Structure prediction request, 572 residues.
Amino acid sequence: MIMLASAAFMVGMLRMGTETVMPQGAVFADKIYYGGDMVTMVGSRPQYVERLAVRDGKILFAGEAKKVGKFRGPATVAVNLRGRFLAPGFFDAHSHLVTVGVQAISANLLPQPDGTVNSISQLQNEMRNHLASSQVVKKFGVVIGFNYDDSQLKERRSPTAAELDAISTTMPVVVIHQSGHLGAMNSVALKLAGVTESSKNPQGGIIQRKPGTSIPNGVLEETAFFVALFKVLPDFSEADKLEQVLAAQKIYAANGFTTVQEGRAEPEMLSTLQAGANSKKFVIDVIGFPALDTNGEEPIKQSPLMSKYYTNRLRYGGVKLTFDGSPQGKTAYFTKHYFKVPEGQPNSYRGYPAFQAEVAQKWVTTAYKNHWNLLVHANGDAAIDELIAVVKSARAQFPPKGNRTVLIHGQFLRRDQILELKRLEIMPSLYPMHTFYWGDWHRESVAGPERAENISPTGWVLKAGMKFTIHTDAPVTFPNSIRVLDSAVNRTTRSGYVLGRSQRISPYVALQSMTSWAAFQHREDNQKGTLEVGKLADFVVLDRNPIKVPRSQLLSLKVVETIKEGVSIYSR
Prediction:
């Protein structure tokens, strides 16, 4: 038998739907999967194959059992799924790989059910335990906590500098809000960051003050927090940063993700991503999106990683801009005032934009001029209005040439805005995880019952005939693929309330948004997202079929195995 090289072999194959007729010189499979539900994710309804054959990291055959025999050779391994479910590997359509690495070395301040911190006193205790036990604290002399949530704290507010001083008065103490858009520092950290009574609010940020004074109370929002944080964080070595990113990678792999984002790569993160690629230890594909406003145009243009091809499992897929903050932190930019405004704000308070209009226009036009894919974080409807306006202008000057613009989060996307997104070819990547984590908070405090009902409106977008994706935004939430799936299908809050019944989607559509539509978002649908011949053998195996189990049981599903290009990278 003539043995052909893989590339020539793949070119010579004739495809018929998801099945294959082989030309002369066929080769044998490395593995053949059988014995479970294998959904192709091709088309608008579930289609299954009886056999799935893999060779050299790509799908060799997907079809009927009676036709797979020609691919079975003496070295072919038969893999019995034992009734489990196999689908294309999951994409996390928006997340922050590098920051998940920082989360991995920080005190866990998550509330129940992901943690134990539901009061400021519990936060203090967790931070004290971390101070006493963490090797990072011992090595770098800074105490970092991640993922506190004021909406779940008994006090319904962030901790103050004075309350963090109770943890340490000699070391900087920093706690990062679960949104990632604000945080609190003790007196030592504020001094180290240069935040004083005379400090002014930066553009797109707020330094909270003690009532009736100009004295900082320790809580910093948006750009005020980001600038201060980088002054306080330890000077991690490249080896330290690489170790953190590889720890984060394991978390993603354990949740069935084979492709993930670094969804806003600041300048100091780019070297960390490069180090990960150089180490050749990335086992998942990482798509970086450098922050355009902080990196500038030229460094991105000069990088060979800005490519549709991966180098050691890393590429830059475009650029990222952030137009506003977080609704749960009450920094998202709305057209109507918050249901309950933050303390010290006027009743008309509706959040604020990250950029002045002319600055937003400048950066979006830059992206369109270079024909870069563009991610834009916009939560509030006013921020989305701004996105629509600047994209209209940029498209008029530089019509797209295959570049894709993606609205990230779009939590308070209005129904009238959806047709504008469709007309402008702006793809939504929505965030229904909020229905669980902050749905009650949005109803009670952020937006009120009426507006909160339609956060992350997947139902509206689907009815408009648009593809969309869903994501974790890790480390804002853990990269838990099963909760992503469940939240989009069931939209159940912490209290058990169904938030936006009309916005719920089917399990199959949820899977599309995590596989085939996510591949389309990243312009990788020619090689990922479906079980079709010639595509990468990127798979996730679950213990049961989410399309067939009762919807109430979705959250109990388990990731059994994650496979990247035919190689198992996680096994339960």
